What we know:
Elements: E1 8-12, H1 16-27, E2 33-37, H2 41-51, E3 54-55, H3 59-64, E4 69-72, H4 79-88, E5 93-96, H5 103-113, E6 120-123, H6 130-141, E7 147-155, H7 171-187, E8 191-199, H8 204-208, E9 214-221, E10 226-232, E11 240-247, E12 251-254, H9 280-283, H10 285-299, H11 309-328, E13 332-333
Parallel strand pairs: 1-2, 1-4, 2-3, 4-5, 5-6, 7-10
Antiparallel strand pairs: 7-11, 8-9, 8-13, 9-10, 11-12
Amino acid sequence: xxxxxxxTLGLAGTGRIxxxxxxxxxxxxxxxRVLVADIDxxxxxxxxxKLGVEALPDIDTLLAADLTGLVIATAxxxxxxxxxxxxxxxxxVFCEKPVAADIHGTLAVLEHLENSTVPVQIGFQRRFDAGYxxxxxxxxxxxxxxxxxxxxxxxxxxxxxADYIPRSGGLFRDCGVHDFDIIRWVTGREIVxxxxxxxxxxxxxxxxxxxxxxxxxxxxxxxGTLATISLxxxxxxxxxxxLEVLGSKGNAIVGLDDRAxxxxxxxxxxxxxxxxxxxxxxxxxxAYTDELAAFVAVATGDLESPCSPSDALEAFYIAxxxxxxxxxxxxxxxxxxxx
Length: 339
C-alpha cells in the first residue's frame, strides 16, 4: 500500500457473516481500527467485545465516522440505502450480494452511482477462490481448447431457517446467483438463455414462500457453450460446490478435493477419510479473507473494484430469467428480463 492515512474500516451488521468479516478485517495487515455497528446494538457490543474491536451505538454513528471503507453485511433490504449513503459521503463500499432485493432496486442504485468515482465492490467470494482462479487461467490460456460444457453445483447440506426463505429472493437469486456470476467470470462469456425447473421434496415452508428447495438449469452461453447448474438445500452428504469446465483439449474441475462430499461405490476405490465442509463459511474461508484484503486495497486506492455492481446486476438478470423460466415452464432469453 502506498497510502499514509490511518486505515479505519467500518462494518455494518454483526450477524454470522458480519462477525466473521469483522474478525478477518481485524487480522489483516495495515488495518488500524475496525468499528462495528448493528441495528441490534447489544449484538454489536457483544461481537465487538468478543473480537476486540470497537462497537458504535448505531449505523448512523458508524457512517459519520472517519472511515477508509465500509463493509455492509446487513439484511438485503438495507443494502441500497447503506451503499448510497456511504458513497455520498465519499466512503468506498464493500457490500455482500445482492445490491438490492430485485432488479428495479439494483438499477436504482446503479443510477445513483452513475456519476460517482467512489468505488463499490460486491461480495462474490468465489472470484477469490484459488480453484476458480486456476480454472479461469486454464480457460484464458487456451489449455482446455474450446469449451463445450460447464457443470456447476451449489448443494447446501441443510436449509436455512424457515423465516429466512420468504425474504431470501428464492433459490436462484439467493444461491444460484453465485454460479451464474462465476460462470461469467471463469469463461468471460455471457449466459444468454436458460431453461430452469424446480422441485419441492423437503419442508413445506419453501412451498409457502413460493420457492423451491431443488433446481436444475440448462443454460446457453453467447458462443454456444452449454452450462448446467444444479442447486439444492438438502445435500445430506455435506456442502458441495464444484465447477467442471470441459473443453476440446482438456478439463478443469474446481472443488474436487479430499473434502468434497462424493462417495464412490466402485469396489476398488477407497475414498477420502476427511470430513466434508459443513458450510460455505469453511469452504471459502480463504476466499473471504482474500476478498476483504482486495477491498482494503480498493478502499485505499491501490486497486480497482474487482466485482462491480454492474457485475452483480448481470448475475441477477440470469437469476431473474431462471425464476421466470421455472414459473412459466419455458426457455427464457436473458434479454427478456432486462429493463
